[in-house]
Amino acid sequence: MFSTRSRTAFKNRKALRRSGFASRKGQAAIELALILPVLVLVILGLLQVGIVIEDYLQLQQAVEEGARAGMLGMSDSQIVQVVDQSAPSLQVSALQVTITPPESERAQGTELTVQGSYAVTVVVPLLQPIIGSSVQLSSTSVMRME
């Protein structure tokens, strides 16, 4: 009545059920469903960290350029313009530059401090509840007047 092949297949199915293998059919799908949101959040977090680091490096470079320009005797408005031009990917409206001492108090041998602060907008919506809607960056450069 039953062929040898079908009896062997039937025995194999019974053995699989006894070993518990048949109950683990959807295990990989469940594991993926559990780990995927965490994995996506980590990847998006790394993307946001990269954006923040890039903006910080540009801010730091721009502030140093502004301090160099001020060291050579440029006015405050010219220093701010140099800082703005040295950071092309930063939004000028979110960039604040503070220069001390005032132009009237600068003399040869005194220190000129240029400080820049910038608010980086968090572009990954999933991270906004965790770290907020922006990250505040700040960089300072001090050079001696010539």
Short description:
This protein is α+β, with helices and mostly antiparallel strands and 146 residues long.
Helix content, binned percent: 40-55%
Radius of gyration: 31 Å
Report the major sheet.
3 strands, antiparallel
β-sheet strand percentage: 15-25%
Give the oligomer, counting copies of the same chain as homo and different chains as hetero.
single chain
Q: Number of folding domains?
A: 1
Q: For the residues shown, what is the average pLDDT? A: 86
Give the uncertain stretches in residue-range form: none
What's the number of helices?
A: 4
* End-to-end gap: 105 Å
Strand order of the largest sheet: 1-2-3
The helix/strand order is HHHEEHE
Describe this structure in words.
This protein is of the alpha+beta class and 146 residues long. It has one domain (4-144). 52% of the residues lie in helices and 19% in strands. The chain contains 4 helices and 3 strands. It has a 3-stranded antiparallel sheet, covered by helices on one side. α2 packs antiparallel against α3 (76-86). The longest helix has 45 residues, at 27-71. The protein is rod-shaped and about 105 Å long. The model has no long low-confidence stretch (mean pLDDT 86).
